[in-house]
Amino acid sequence: MEACFDERELGLASLKIGLKLDHEGEHPDKVLSFATRALKVLDSENKLSLPLSMTLQLLGSANYELKRFNDSLGYLNRANKVLVRLEEEGSCDIEDIRPILHAVQMELANVKTAMGRREEALGNLRKSLEIKESILGKDHVEIGKTNKDLAEAYVAILNFKEALPYCLKALEIHKAQLGLSSAQVAHDRLLLGVIYTGMEEHEKALDQNRLAQKTLKNWGLSSDLLRAEIGAANMEIALGRYDAAINTLKGVVQQTEKDSESRALVFISMAKALVNQDKFGDSRRCLEVASGILDKKEAAKPLEVAEAYMDMSMQYEIMNELEKAISLLKKAVALLEKLPHEQHSVGSVSARIGWLLLLTGKVEEAIPYLESAAETLKESFGPHHFGIGYIYNNLGAAYLELDRPQSAAQMFAVAKDIMDASLGSHHSDSIEAIQNLSKAYAASGSYGLAIEFQQQAVNAWEGHGSSAEDMLNEARRVLKQLKLKASGASSDGFPTKALPLPHNSDSGRSLQPNIEQSC
Known about the structure:
23 helices; globular; disordered C terminus; mainly alpha
């Protein structure tokens, strides 16, 4: 009996030391050793307890710091189950359970984000907000911060519609608790500007940006103010006010240091405005200046540089310099691959590279990028995200180009199913996937199936009315040619190639990181 008591005391002491070391920022290996000792003791008791849940949470946290994400997830999931059981059984005071449960939910969100499972992480962030509201009340200033964090998480996956209410709530709380002129309110407004930009409500975005700029100026936050002014110029570009954007940027560039990241971003935005004015030579020179600065920043700021390379790539695409665009995207992937939190971005950029390689006729080189992108993004967003449908469509186009119609048909069928579920069967890209599937079946000699799917495309275009008259006429022409081919008659003008689709076409959404919204 005495021995058991001493063993429990040893376990609790190990837990306390581990928690203290963690709080003091000691190396996670030290924390892990004490937490492991504590778990061995507490597990031997064969009963659920708060100390057991705290030990599991500490093990999850230490493993996360050591980038052992699978181990971390296992401990945190177990901690969550223990806490839920304790709450259900009523064996512990709910006021003691909630703070630990909140910490576990936040850790789960961090681990899942690091593993690229961002959609799942959002569920844990929402749960952590609910718990925090139950502890502090819905109008506490900390609840404002948590709402803003949740809005940013939705922005990171470009779900601006879901981000909006959380950002508005954060703004409402911070205005009430900190005042209209607080720096936090200004930062909420900047985020709101990003969200409105993503929703293509550019005037609203610009209004929020200007309000934020006034506050940032009063607080002397020059670095944040510079970023806000660059953001305002990008909003003016989105509104077609290119001269106004250029004038804004000319003023901003005078405030930047010669080799600063901010200066590079100014030149990228300037290039964007000039591209839209068809001043390709001037745009190219701006991009070259930006590139010269960013090359030196890769080691210090890999994420920021990668995002800038992606934005630059888009400008080269517009100028039809696709080899240069591909080169920049490959540099971006090389930087992003080293960042565990950015695997969704690796998938998204790889998909873009694959699409561009298809456009330049490098079909065999495109396939590994597309296959890798599909697998990576399934991990991040689940298998039915609309963006993955575009990737499978492009894989189908690649296989059809290589005269592998059966493989192409499999890819197009997957693309069709995903797009039907996520975009709707009458979305223009969903219809294109159906037509591509018809082409694949025709190429393999399965004319019955080809006719069946082409008829579906005709029916879908008919539902679009006069706005899709040209597409409907072409679909009917192809259907007629298919029927002739099936009957053994010769047919001219029958399409045998599929159309590769960029996965941010007219769906109004993208898997690309935030800096690429405007493309």
